[in-house]
Amino acid sequence: MAAFSATISDSSRFLSSTSLPKRKISASSPRCRSFSLPKPFPLSRLNICSRLERGKSFTICAQASVSDISVEKSMDKVNLPKGDMWAVHKFGGTCVGTSQRIKNVADIIISDDSERKLVVVSAMSKVTDMMYDLINKAQSRDDSYVSSLDAVLEKHNSTALDLLEGDDLASFLSELHHDVSNLKAMLRAIYIAGHVTESFSDFVVGHGELWSAQLLSYVVRKNGLDCKWMDTREVLIVNPTSSNQVDPDFLESERKLEKWFSQNPSKIIIATGFIASTPQNIPTTLKRDGSDFSAAIMGALFRARQVTIWTDVDGVYSADPRKVSEAVILRKLSYQEAWEMSYFGANVLHPRTIIPVMRYDIPIVIRNIFNLSAPGTKICRSASEDVDGQNLDSPVKGFATIDNLALVNVEGTGMAGVPGTASAIFGAVKDVGANVIMISQASSEHSVCFAVPEKEVKAVAEALQSRFRQALDAGRLSQVAVIPNCSILAAVGQKMASTPGVSATLFNALAKANINIRAIAQGCSEYNITVVLKREDCIRALRAVHSRFYLSRTTIAIGIIGPGLIGATLLDQLRDQAAVLKEEFNIDLRVMGITGSRTMLLSEVGIDLSRWRELLKQKGQVADLEKFTQHVHGNHFIPNTALVDCTADSNVASCYHDWLRKGINVITPNKKANSGPLDKYLKLRALQRQSYTHYFYEATVGAGLPIISTLRGLLETGDRILRIEGIFSGTLSYIFNNFTGTRTFSEVVAEAKEAGYTEPDPRDDLSGTDVGRKVIILARESGLKLELSDIPVQTLVPEPLRATESAEDFMKQLPQFDTDMAKERQDAEESGEVLRYVGVVDAINQKGVVELRRYSKSHPFAQLSGSDNIIAFTTTRYKDQPLIVRGPGAGAQVTAGGVFSDILRLASYLGAPS
Ligand code: ADP
Ligand code: ASP
Ligand code: MG
């Protein structure tokens, strides 16, 4: 059989030898390779048979064998240098994707000052896919394989033309054309057969690596460095296993490596990734993405100092960066963690890469060829020490997912306590050659459930049905159920399972994202918790758990309702402060939505606050508060939500209860909720106290002045409020501070209106209802159970003007009433007093009032200027001298500032550093 296959191998050589120039024969030239072609090659169906020259082929084969023997004889003298002097580099497909990139790779090799270097290369990017495509086309008898092969040839041809010249170019192209013409013959055979064997396929697909390694070695040599390229099929010997994997034969590979090295002693070796040979010398591969594995095996054979895997990302991320934009680079991983990550779908590393290097404690470093400044991820034995402040001991390192799985559930009361059931189940699964990815069995032994690749589940289910036919018929087993369309989400971290609370957080994050878990497994290795989910939930689940573990605990998704004067000012303040908060305090505030009454703007990742106005105009959609809430709270990736109500709307205020119940924190300067019906207010506060959801409303009274918080501080520390008295309206403060007798009352009101201190209609201020609301808020906060209607409010709008249509008419008519107000002021003045419009909470008598009062000129209220607010708290502790808070208590900047500090208060309640 061996001779037979050798014949085929040489037959294709014979075919091409007529059309191609003669090539130099070197130790690693294909001419001297003694590979057997994959076994049953359907000779009889090949039209090339008639052209076989058996005798000649045998001669060539015999030559190859002779050279093998002579090498073996001289082998004793060869001493393969091993150890730290070797650095192994592996360059992935994208690293060698273009001629320019191949040059860059050569530069990296040259600049590494290690004494000896072994470089493993993948095929140029996409080439392996193209090669598989050729096979698929040929096997399905699609003629276009011919033009596809031309494309492969052209890709390498043009890359070579870019990189090489003279003899180098000629010899590479001759090699390339030779290979391609062989491939053409083989693909033709596959086309005729309509079938391909695995070993044939492996032989074809491995060519990408043969070409890229040769190209790179020419380029390195062109740079003046001596280097040899290695066809790893001459060195790496692997045994195929039943599970579409191969196991390296280290002893045999080492022997072959010594032999190879004795013929090619070199300090720089450029080796093909991915390909190897079976013990029978048949070309094979390490399976998809196997070049990482090649590099690790080489690292182990040479006992190298380090294996560096160059790719197109900065290292191993905490989750697939294509799926989770927030993923972070992991600076260090243990071998086990890296293995688990790669096994569960992080394709940045082939899962089998770890084992060979682990044996000799060789670290692997994953680096980005496109970003040399990034230090990459180091994979080594102990990952607990700190790298640049990154907490390497954090229990969860990363998350990965595998799609296209199905769950199989074998269930029945007859399984409990029956020895051998599991063995029978998995025996049946093994018989169909399916790969079991995870297993979960409840301790009641009522069911065993496991995940297999979707494409294998039909065969598995049939095998189980037939294996357990009798038990099913007898009712000992109730069913063998298949749940299709599943995915696995794995959380990986060495300390994870031994740290209490981690799985709780994980499951909680999934629950919050409303994701149903179908099965759970946690290996005793404690490196991994695996959950099976519906495939459609998988990315959402991945993001939800990732953000739960990786976003700062104080990342808050914010929805701003009412981008009017206060809301807009708040958004601008957030814009200006966000970076500092994030960098210095680890507080990450993301405005996920802004809604007015007509339009709303939603974002998945956070609105760019430097452009929110234009975005709202350009990308705004029809406002819908329910949809808005759902969006801000429903993204599930950000651990906390806060809705900030900057309206004065009672409809919005009526939603707070529902929001708090849903776990949405509420922050507002809107007075409507706290001054609305008492029963609703009490319910809201009760809910707030029962839950860990927060409701802050500092800016409802005195804008940014610390009034509510001062009051709370007093009450919480056991002080008792006797009386709160204050000037709570900036407008009325301004009016009475300036009504000193030099101008009439109406002139002062007009002046205040002009300066923008009043509402558009000054009656809204003069009526005192706003002050009444503030009084009721403070009264309720102090524990009084009062309704707004319980507070008598003295209005300063003269009775006859209350119904006046417009603000202009009101202002025109107001001077008619100046004399009344002048008289009142005059009376006060005569007794050494001033007029002040105040609100009072009388806690002793459980009352409140809003009215114009007279204060002695020495009273703090008489000393006020501008539009300041002043609030005096008389308490059992502050009895003789009240505690006074004074300062600007109106205006967009200070009000928005008050709301902003509530947001930061929320962040600190959630755990932000102080
Ligand atoms: P190469 O061809 O260099 O071997 P691969 O495509 O095999 O590159 O692997 C790198 C890719 O792996 C990255 O581009 C990235 O998209 C993907 N990937 C998936 N999961 C992760 C992860 N957790 N960390 C980093 N990359 C990941
Ligand atoms: N070229 C092979 C593949 O694409 C091996 C590798 O790149 O790791 O699968
Ligand atoms: Mg790879």
Gist of the model:
With 914 residues, the protein is an alpha/beta fold.
Polypeptide structure, described:
The chain has 914 residues and is an alpha/beta fold. Helices cover 41% and strands 19% of the residues. The strands form six sheets. Strands 3-6-2-1-9-11-12-10 form an eight-stranded mixed beta sheet, sandwiched between helices. Helix 4 runs antiparallel to helix 5 and helix 18 crosses helix 32. The longest helix is centred in the first third of the chain and has 28 residues, at 166-193.
Which keywords apply here?
binds aspartic acid, binds adenosine-5'-diphosphate, eight-stranded mixed sheet, alpha/beta, seven-stranded mixed sheet, 41% helix, single chain, disordered N terminus, binds magnesium ion
Please describe the topology of this protein.
Elements: H1 2-17, H2 54-74, E1 86-91, H3 99-111, E2 116-121, H4 127-139, H5 145-163, H6 166-193, H7 198-205, H8 207-222, E3 228-230, E4 238-240, E5 246-248, H9 250-263, E6 268-272, E7 275-277, E8 283-285, H10 291-302, E9 306-311, E10 332-334, H11 335-343, H12 354-359, E11 364-368, E12 377-380, E13 398-411, H13 421-431, E14 438-441, E15 447-453, H14 454-467, H15 469-473, E16 479-492, H16 502-512, E17 517-522, E18 528-534, H17 538-550, E19 555-561, H18 565-585, E20 588-595, E21 599-602, H19 612-619, E22 621-622, H20 625-634, E23 640-645, H21 650-653, H22 656-661, E24 665-667, H23 672-675, H24 678-690, E25 695-696, H25 708-716, E26 721-727, H26 730-738, H27 745-754, H28 763-766, H29 769-781, H30 807-813, H31 818-830, E27 833-842, E28 847-856, E29 868-875, E30 883-888, H32 892-909
Parallel strand pairs: 1-2, 1-9, 2-6, 3-6, 9-11, 10-12, 19-20, 19-23, 23-24, 24-25
Antiparallel strand pairs: 4-5, 7-8, 11-12, 13-15, 13-16, 14-15, 16-18, 17-18, 20-21, 21-22, 26-27, 26-29, 27-28, 29-30
Helix pairs in contact: 1-2, 1-6, 3-8, 4-5, 4-6, 5-6, 6-8, 13-14, 16-17, 18-32, 26-27
This protein binds adenosine-5'-diphosphate, aspartic acid (ASP) and magnesium ion.
